[in-house]
Design goal:
With about 250 residues, the protein is an alpha/beta fold. Helices cover about 40% and strands about 15% of the residues. It has helices at about 20-35, 55-65, 80-85, 95-110, 135, 165-175, 180-185, 200-210, 210-225, 235-240, and strands spanning about 10-15, 40-45, 70-75, 120-125, 140-145, 150-155. A six-stranded mixed sheet has the order 3-2-1-4-6-5. Strand 5 (about 140-145) and strand 6 form a beta hairpin. The longest helix is centred in the middle third of the chain and has 17 residues, at about 95-110. The termini are far apart. The structure holds iron/sulfur cluster. Iron/sulfur cluster binds next to helix 4.
Length: about 250
């Protein structure tokens, strides 16, 4: 790891309980342990209200096992509530759902370290360049402009930005710890919100099976507004392709 973790008062890892979050947490905790600063590591999970069942439990289990602090935050409005209120779905141009998540995590960091208090904070996330054209352009390390204020200096660090998916799974396998059952029992590619506009069809089918309530809410938005889940593709048609029956 190219970063000296001992410089930071708080090492905050955003986790979704997915494979990238897990690999990131394993890497950071191993380094923090080596440098004697494991007690400064805090994993934060934002419960969006659209999460896979047990996301919180699995993340908590990992943190307990690794001996680090864990905290759950909630956005001021859940992702499904926000979608229902706006009567439209997130898109590449308008990722309001991600914003809801990061705002809740940022709020906790501001509360823990008010800007008058002198502190140097590392905010860590598990994006990988391989995943999207947007992520390709991200910095591995940069100033966190939104959180840096007064005496509070915050930096954003993405330790697995250049990792390929095989390396992620290799790291998890080497730990001997089980990933979220969405991967092992359902064969998901990714995990975060159970039904996500950016997910592949199979992950959406799995999400609708485990969160039929969520599928029904999103189908309701489509029925009421005619606004489609994805550009030119309705959730109803995606679920029909997978023979997933909703009400
Ligand atoms: S998983 Fe998808 S729907 Fe959920 S916050 Fe991320 S981008 Fe939005």
């Amino acid at each position: 790891m190219n970063i000296d973790l001992t410089e930071y008062n708080l090492i905050a890892i955003s986790t979704s309980a997915g494979k990238d979050s897990m690999a990131t947490t394993l890497e950071v905790v191993a380094e923090a342990e080596k440098r004697g600063v494991k007690h400064r590591v805090l994993a934060i999970l934002c419960n969006t209200g659209a999460d896979w069942p047990n996301a919180e439990t699995e993340a908590r289990k990992l943190c307990n096992h690794l001996g680090i602090q864990f905290q759950v935050v909630h956005p001021y409005r859940s992702v499904p509530d926000y979608i229902s209120m706006r009567q439209r779905f997130p898109s590449m141009q308008c990722r309001f759902c991600t914003r809801l998540k990061t705002s809740a995590i940022d709020k906790l960091i501001r509360k823990l370290f008010p800007h008058k208090q002198e502190a140097k904070i590392l905010s860590i996330t598990g994006e990988r360049r391989e995943e999207s054209t947007h992520r390709k352009k991200l910095d591995e390390f940069c100033v966190h402009d939104e959180l840096t204020a007064g005496n509070r200096q915050v930096f954003h660090y993405r330790p697995i930005l250049d990792w390929k998916v095989g390396k992620v799974w290799g790291r998890i396998k080497a730990s001997g710890l089980p990933p979220h059952p969405a991967y092992t029992e359902y064969g998901n590619e990714r995990l975060s919100c159970a039904i996500c506009v950016f997910a592949c069809d199979k992950d959406i089918w799995n999400g609708a099976l485990v969160r039929p309530d969520l599928a029904e809410r999103y189908l309701e938005v489509e029925r009421k507004t005619g606004f489609l889940f994805r550009h030119n593709q309705s959730l109803a048609s995606i679920l029909a392709k997978g023979a997933i029956k909703c009400r």
